Amino acid sequence: MAEEWPLYRVIGDGANHPDRVEAEVAKRIYAQMVLLRTFDEKTITLQRQGRVGTFPPSIGQEAAEIGSAAALSKDDWMAPSYRDHGALFMHGVPFHHVVLFAMGKGSSIDGEAFVLPSSIPISSHLPHAVGLAMACRRLGEERVAIAYFGDGGTSEGDFHEALNFAGVFKAPVIFFCQNNGWAISVPVSRQTATPTLVQKSQAYGVHGVRVDGNDALACYQVVAEARERALGDGGPTMIEALTYRIGPHTTADDPTRYRPPESLAPWTGDNDPLVRLAQYLVQRGVMTVEEPPAIWAEARQRVNRAVEEALNSPPVRKEAMFDSVYAEVPDALAAQMEDLAEEEAPDARN
Amino acid sequence: MAEEWPLYRVIGDGANHPDRVEAEVAKRIYAQMVLLRTFDEKTITLQRQGRVGTFPPSIGQEAAEIGSAAALSKDDWMAPSYRDHGALFMHGVPFHHVVLFAMGKGSSIDGEAFVLPSSIPISSHLPHAVGLAMACRRLGEERVAIAYFGDGGTSEGDFHEALNFAGVFKAPVIFFCQNNGWAISVPVSRQTATPTLVQKSQAYGVHGVRVDGNDALACYQVVAEARERALGDGGPTMIEALTYRIGPHTTADDPTRYRPPESLAPWTGDNDPLVRLAQYLVQRGVMTVEEPPAIWAEARQRVNRAVEEALNSPPVRKEAMFDSVYAEVPDALAAQMEDLAEEEAPDARN
Amino acid sequence: MPAINMATALNQALGQMMNTEPRLVILGEDVGQNGGVFRVTAGLWETYGAERVMDTPLAESAIVGSAIGMAIGGLRPVAEIQFMGFLYPALNQIFSHLGRLGQRSRGKFRVPLVVRIPYGGGIRAPEQHADSAEAPLVHTAGIKVVVPSTPYDAKGLLVAAIEDPDPVIFLEPIRLYRLGRAEVPADLYRVRIGPARLARTGSDVSLISWGAMTHLALQTAEAMAGDGVSVEVVDLRSLKPMDEAMIAESVRKTGRAVVVHEAPRTAGLGGEVVSVIQEHAFWWLKAPIRRVAAYDVPYPPYAWEDVYLPTPSRVMRAIRQVLQD
Amino acid sequence: MPAINMATALNQALGQMMNTEPRLVILGEDVGQNGGVFRVTAGLWETYGAERVMDTPLAESAIVGSAIGMAIGGLRPVAEIQFMGFLYPALNQIFSHLGRLGQRSRGKFRVPLVVRIPYGGGIRAPEQHADSAEAPLVHTAGIKVVVPSTPYDAKGLLVAAIEDPDPVIFLEPIRLYRLGRAEVPADLYRVRIGPARLARTGSDVSLISWGAMTHLALQTAEAMAGDGVSVEVVDLRSLKPMDEAMIAESVRKTGRAVVVHEAPRTAGLGGEVVSVIQEHAFWWLKAPIRRVAAYDVPYPPYAWEDVYLPTPSRVMRAIRQVLQD
Ligand SMILES: Cc1ncc(C[n+]2csc(CCOP(=O)(O)OP(=O)(O)O)c2C)c(N)n1
Ligand SMILES: Cc1ncc(C[n+]2csc(CCOP(=O)(O)OP(=O)(O)O)c2C)c(N)n1
Ligand SMILES: [Mg+2]
Ligand SMILES: [Mg+2]
């Protein structure tokens, strides 16, 4: 079955699809991948210092995160999971809001971006993406919706119901599954008895594509193609991006309990998605060997600036948790706000 | 895709599998199918007379119901849906309890049979069957579990989660899906975008079989084979039995609202599962043309007797609704039983 | 004004709103050509087509979940769940998302979704077709929950629910769909979500109820009037937000209260009503408040239904008790 | 007796029961090699193997649903749901089946299943990892619901839950897993499901709570003792069945009561407790009962957690209020 689903590849030895990514776009993807890696590493440090809460890094998954999101139009709807910080800022969420979110100060979706608040319950946002896509079509808008989720997410009932709905209604939606090998401590081989995840698309009459998730340009291209399919009324696409979670599930997780460090080898070094893309871009002649260090330095600066901005942001107003629960505050809730106001406690902690 | 899943057939023109059903068994299957048809018709009448509540007949599906259940061992676990009265009594539930159940007087599972109470929420019993099967294996028992459900049932999240679990744990379980063309008013073509239901098995590494659901002997054989597979540690099987709901969804349903009477043509007359089996058995020489009338008469007698017994059964004891909610009645519940006892209302109505 | 039953009133509300609000779409199981198992969407598919009246696959989580997406994406979806007991597969969408998206998006997104649910028992339905799970819904922050008990309120509340910028769970007492007719304006009108309805004035005891139990309450009140007991009946109508002021006012007047609901007693919504009374009318109370509810056992097969649900005699006993206390 | 924390006490109960009860199996997400995200099943996979300590696919409905099947099939399953908020996809199994199968099978089948669920807030967890949804569970007929607040009760109640012939939802306050140690017998023992625990005796007011709020209650009681206020603390411990007798007895003594819980106030379990007091101790009440609960908004991101959940100052204010009333 796995043979029926060859990995879509653009860069490196096994390339089986021509590179159709413009040089400018490819470079932007690389820079954003560097930014994401830098952000993750910085946030892990902040977490260790107790300045942000539990954090799920996406180290190792930058190609999938950024490559895929880069192929979207700014108008497309995105329904991300908790790990998709890269996709968030790639899709227009102001960078420092992503940091604020990691600090427990609120939603990940400020700004103008068409991004839902990151979904915490696994796969429960997939039906939202289907509904958004159906709304776009009904309203005659030239937009698609994309949902991000993991390998573990394919086991939930909502995955099934969402893909089946998408198939039946031919919704212009993209299901982007990052198969990073693990759902916390459970390897994908114990998540499902099938050799691939993408083959599940066949249960729904949904187009399926399996892509090298560490090949940023391939990730870009499969999403671009899925968008066109969706906009051309060709229906939904499920993409399985094969990648690897290099780091812990979250900063609260200790992966040495369940996997040997050797398991990282095939996914790091020359196979690190950042290294792969950099080498390829240099080889293709769109980037010089001098550029990456500058890009890294710039990323560090941006991250530090954003972190500083976030750390210096004022404490949250305690009443803000009541804001926008309803369009209009009902009486009983207003009484509770008064009760809160009586609290002598200072504003909520950071 | 449909071509990849040819219909397993034993009787009639398109037969593609040899008949391996013993003559005695085949005759018993026929007699029970007649009993089921007779029961359904009688119960519809009783419903019209206001003597039983809403009733879901399985007219047209007798081959699938009875053929499949006939292949089980009495020790196997059965998790039926609301429509599977035939499978119930075939698996050992005393016939008159099935009638009592239709009369709203209680559970469908009295007697010694290894049958769960019929599941009402669609597909929610599929995980139970998986767990039962896992328990059998863990306890070293030579038993399998079977779950009955419909085409609509394949859209629920629980279908997905159950089949995925079964695949991962290689549970000795059989998923028997009666594709009767309709989920109330929704045709299977709007239930899913796939041409078959059985192909969904591929999403789970579960063995899949598509059977002519109006061929009782084929239904028998595919279940017998699935049992052997399960007991031989070959894992779960999903069976799609292609049949048709000749009657209304329930006695509360009016199918003329959503389907033309002509749609019945391919499934009735010579294609009626009872007619098909009778003709074949006569042709095979295991039944004479004189036998069917006697079998029908005997069925009518049994049904009338059971109905009489059920109608004459005493009214339910009102306290019985408290029975066996817990192994031991908690204090607060005991107080409520006393409150009920104070009620001057007569015992609950029939 | 023509006299119509509740099912027709709801059908009218939907049809008229479909007509005036082009963003309105309906989705659910059998809501299209079949017009819904209770015929509440009858005729809409014929008029507005399958693009706006969508028969969905049999999957409640996706019905509510996709409708959340549609609502955020600019539509005005009205989702139907076929029976209250079949909302349970969708509870993750309700508990995890429906009421949280406003706060979680800091007001950037609102979810103007209506989920219609036939609700409650009393019609000899098959097992698990008669649940009353309002309490868990009312416990859920960020949503609204309403339940009409008259054709007039049914139409007016449904229009208000569809126009509400926030998610509304709309419970429809199955027993009342076709129980009697009442005059209902032919035009569109709104019944505000929040205020309760004083269904009957009285001075000796306050009966507080909602849905089909309001009929039981009124029936009991009528019966007891003959015995010289004056019963006031408050029909909550909006369960969340709840009209605490009217509840308090009524009990301050009567000094005695009985709450009636169809759901099992323990941790049912009756406890909330008791607490509200306690907090706002304690000093006026002349006797402990009583709850009349279904027993704390699973909803039994219908042969038991009449004694499982509150009966007139249990409500009367409770009233006599609070009068004697 | 060694002093251990609640997580260790639970781990001990599971290990010792695995040892004595061969039909016991454990299933859930990450319960195997990883030992559970809170390490409550640590070491069991190593000792008892993957056949008895089963890492499952990420699917809560199938976890609870298959465990129901296992329980009927003769095993003694203990299922773990990773966080309370992730029980929601399994609520259909709980509401539709778990508590109904005894009655629906007329006692032919019992479902001796334990569902363990880390529960509640207070540890700066990510969004939606801190819910307290006990009320809907307690509303469900046919199941039991317990929540320990000490290591001793944790071990004893878990053993009792595993041995119980009926389904038990076992809530584990996340905040208490590692909050302090207490002496716990090394051997197996049981704490009966049902009776509450008188956590502190007092005479002026009864504080009724469960889970992590019991610590808040005790802390507040201690602080107010300095002001000469004598606070009695009842730790419910078993939410269903609930120890109505002890609640009544305490309030009959003190004449005043405050209920504290982490879940949102409206339709929370506080209403049930208020009703129980009302029904059994009305004539002893000197003031309205007060509820201190989370506000009726979705559980906010953790920057707000400290003011969202009941604080010592809110509990004190409520106590002062009932004393003044
Ligand atoms: C419904 C639900 N169940 C459990 C969890 C706890 N949980 C958080 S992440 C995770 C593993 C997810 O794995 P996967 O889908 O592969 O995504 P990844 O974390 O690898 O990106 C689990 C079990 C959850 N968030 N939601
Ligand atoms: C979870 C759930 N949703 C909705 C229903 C209402 N309902 C009862 S039967 C049915 C259609 C089922 O169709 P199918 O699965 O094909 O089985 P069939 O009735 O054809 O045997 C529906 C929607 C239900 N029982 N459970
Ligand atoms: Mg993963
Ligand atoms: Mg069907």
Features:
heterotetramer, A: 350 residues, Rossmann fold, 5-stranded parallel beta sheet, two-stranded antiparallel ribbon, 40% helix, globular, C: 325 residues, 14 strands, binds thiamine diphosphate
Q: What is the rounded Rg of chain C?
A: 19 Å
Content-based structural category of chain A: alpha/beta
CATH fold-level topology of the largest domain in chain A:
Rossmann fold
CATH superfamily of the largest domain in chain C: Thiamin diphosphate (ThDP)-binding fold, Pyr/PP domains
Largest interface, and how many residues on either side? C-D, 51 and 51 residues
List the helices and strands and how they pair.
The complex is a heterotetramer, with two copies of chain A (350 residues) and two copies of chain C (325 residues).
Chain A lengths: L22 H26 L13 H9 L6 E3 L5 H6 L4 H8 L23 H13 L6 E6 L6 H13 L3 E7 L2 E2 L2 E2 H4 L15 E6 L3 H16 L5 E6 L30 H12 L6 H21 L19 H12 L8
Parallel strand pairs in A: 1-2, 2-3, 3-7, 6-7
Antiparallel strand pairs in A: 4-5
Helix pairs in contact in A: 1-2, 1-9, 1-10, 2-8, 4-10, 5-6
Chain C lengths: L2 E2 L1 H15 L3 E5 L15 H5 L4 E3 L4 H13 L3 E5 L10 H8 L2 H4 L9 E6 L14 H5 L5 E3 L4 H13 L4 E6 L8 E2 L13 E4 L4 E5 L2 H14 L5 E5 L2 E3 L3 H11 L2 E8 L4 H13 L8 E5 L10 H4 L3 H13 L1
Parallel strand pairs in C: 2-3, 2-4, 4-5, 5-7, 6-7, 10-11, 10-13, 13-14
Antiparallel strand pairs in C: 1-8, 6-12, 9-11
Helix pairs in contact in C: 1-7, 3-4, 8-12, 9-10
The structure holds thiamine diphosphate (2 copies) and magnesium ion (MG) (2 copies).
Q: How would you sum up this structure, described in words?
A:
Chain A has helices at residues 23-48, 62-70, 85-90, 95-102, 126-138, 157-169, 188-191, 216-231, 273-284, 291-311, 331-342, and strands spanning 77-79, 145-150, 173-179, 182-183, 186-187, 207-212, 237-242. Chain A is an alpha/beta fold and 350 residues long. Chain A folds into two domains: 2-316, Rossmann fold; 318-350, no CATH class. In chain A, strands 1-2-3-7-6 form a five-stranded parallel β-sheet, with helices on both faces. Chain A has a two-stranded antiparallel sheet with strand order 4-5. In chain A, strand 4 and strand 5 form a beta hairpin. In chain A, helix 1 (23-48) runs antiparallel to helix 9 (273-284), helix 2 (62-70) packs parallel to helix 8 (216-231) and helix 4 crosses helix 10 (291-311). The longest helix of chain A is centred in the first third of the chain and has 26 residues, at 23-48. The radius of gyration of chain A is 21 Å and the shape is globular. Chain A starts with 22 loop residues before the first helix and ends in an 8-residue tail after the last helix. Chain C is an alpha/beta fold and 325 residues long. Chain C folds into two domains: 3-183, 3-Layer(aba) Sandwich (Rossmann fold), CATH 3.40.50; 197-324, Rossmann fold. Chain C is 36% helix and 19% strand. In chain C, strands 3-2-4-5-7-6-12 form a seven-stranded mixed β-sheet, sandwiched between helices. In chain C, strands 9-11-10-13-14 form a five-stranded mixed β-sheet, with helices on both faces. Chain C has a two-stranded antiparallel sheet with strand order 1-8. Chain C is globular and about 60 Å long. Chain C starts with a strand and ends with a helix. The mean pLDDT of chain C is 97. At the C-D interface, helix 4, helix 6 and helix 10 of C face helix 4, helix 6 and helix 10 of D. The structure holds thiamine diphosphate (2 copies) and magnesium ion (2 copies). One thiamine diphosphate sits between chains A (83, 120-122, 149-153, 180, 182-184, 245, 249) and D (29, 58, 60, 82, 86, 89).
